[in-house]
Structure formats: structure tokens, C-alpha cells
Amino acid sequence: MHDNGTLYIVPTPIGNMQDITHRAISILNTVDLIACEDTRHSQRLLQHYQITTPLTSLHEHNEDKRAAFLADKLKQGDNIALISDAGTPLISDPGYTLVNTCRAQGVTVTALPGPCAAITALSASGLATDRFTFEGFLPVKQQAKTEKLSQLTNESSTSVFYEAPRRVKDTLLMIKEVLGSERQIVLAKELSKAFENYVSGNADTILEWLDSDPAHQKGEFVLLVSGIKKGGSDIPEEAINLLKQLKNELPLKKAAAITANHYDLKKNELYQLGLTFD
Ligand code: SAM
Q: Does the beta carbon of 191 lie inside 6 Å of ligand 1?
């Protein structure tokens, strides 16, 4: 009977190779095996730090099988580190099934603190940090994306998204359409790399910046959107009730227009509010 090994969740740099802790290097050096998304990619990091521990792959297409295999190895006493291509494993990266399996089987799992693009961007964004919602990547399909954004209409915390370069413009246009032009947005680009940049403003300001130079649309992005101001809705209770009643009988657009006219309110604000009714 062996003592169980430990699974270590080890964050790695998101751009600047120096962003790795002494402890992370020490763990990567001393474990029996390192599970990573792409062995060729992670080999470069290991070479840089002269780490010779063997690598094995664990990615979204093989995670179910590999999780069982790695959990068995841990139960036989091996210590294993999990890394991803960049940043903190499991944060929009593989590892959930492995950690879940290990926890269910009584294997010790411990995580090292370290780089994460979402937290890095949030901390320097200038947007509210007291409450935030990590949304990861938005759905690719347009309807699902609109629905997801509509759920944030009344969100008062800062929303943090990961976004691919080829979709960033489309996402900003949709944010403008669904959440309106008032939200303050920060586009955090190429964090910890040579061309790191934070662009802030409303959706139009960011779209103009993206259009002003093709190079602006390349790279890695975190998109942060401010929440609605607390108690920020000036829509009176009676107007909300009227909107609810009208929405039962009429298309939302029409219901919002009538309510706006009656109470001298903004049509779009009422429309956005109406989207949140069941
Ligand atoms: N696990 C990673 C973490 O902890 O941040 C995230 C992995 S996810 C597959 C990759 C996404 O993270 C990118 O598409 C981008 O949205 C964001 N990202 C990663 N590195 C970044 C960087 N240096 N600057 C800006 N965004 C970054």
C-alpha cells in the first residue's frame, strides 16, 4: 500500500518568462511527471528553466481518459504537476475533470498562486474590483452570445471576458447593442509582453482604436466591462409595472416605447430591462 502522491496545480507565465515563482520551478523539478496541454509548447518553458521532468499530455480531447490514468498514478504514490499553455490551469483551460476525479478519490490537490490573465487585467483596469464576474470566453454562436450578454443587463459587478482576436470587434459591437453605449470598457492587450496596452472608454472608443491600425486587432485580449451603477436604475416602480404588463401583450420593443413615452424615460433602458423579465 502506497501513500498517495499530490497533484500540484502550477501556474506558468502569460507572456513574460520571468513570471514564474521559485516554488513553481522547484515543484516542476521535483515531481515525477508534469501533465500539460501541449508537450512541445511546454518543453520550451522547461528548457528555459533547465527542468528535465517528463511531460505527458492532458488536453480537452483526452482529459476524461487521462484523468483516470493520472489519478491511478497519484494513488500509487507519484507526485504530479498540472500546467497549461499559459497562466493558471483550469481557468478557461483543461484540468477540471482531473481535479474533480482526484478530489473524489481522496487524492491531495494543492494549487500554487501565480499568473492569471483575468486577475492581472482586472487589477490594473481601473474598474471596480470589489465584485467581479469571470465569464471566460463568450459562446461562438451569435444567438447564444446575445443571450449570454443579455443576462448581464442588470449585473452590477465588473464582467471579465477572454476574447480571441478575430472576435473582439464583433463582441464589442454586440456589447454596444445589448448593454448600450454607457458601459465603461477596458481592453487589456498583450499583458506582460512587449506591446502591453490598456485601452479604456465606451464601446465606440475601443472600436475606433481597433480600427485605427490593423496591428491593434492582433494579440491576446482580456475584455472588462463595468457593471451598472448600484441603485443606478432611475426607472420608477410604476414604469416597471407598466412595462411588465405591456410586455405580456405586446412585442418588447413596442412595450418599451409606450412606457418610455408615458414616463419620459429612455426607450433603450426600458428595452434592456424588459429583456431580463421572465
Ligand atoms: N489559463 C489562462 C489564464 O490563467 O489566464 C487563460 C487561458 S485561455 C485558453 C487564453 C486566453 O487568456 C486568451 O485568449 C486571452 O483572452 C487571455 N490571455 C492569456 N494571456 C494573455 C495575455 N498575455 N494578455 C492578454 N490576455 C491574455
A: yes
Distance between start and end Cα atoms, the chain: 56
Determine the pLDDT at residue 67: 97
Ligand 1 contact, 162 CB (< 6 A): yes
More confidently predicted of 234 and 77: 77
- The model's pTM is 0.84
Confirm or reject: Cβ of 190 under 6 Å from ligand 1: yes
- For 199, the 3-state DSSP assignment is strand
Domains of the chain: 6-111 (3.40.1010.10), 117-225 (3.30.950.10), 237-274 (no CATH)
Ligand 1 center to residue 112 CA distance, Å? 18
pLDDT at 139: 96
193 lines ligand 1 (CB under 6 A): yes
Q: Where are the beta strands (DSSP E) in 61-131?
A: 80-82, 108-111
Query: Does the pLDDT value for residue 231 go beyond 60?
Result: no
Task: Report the DSSP beta bridge partners of residue 82.
Answer: 9, 35
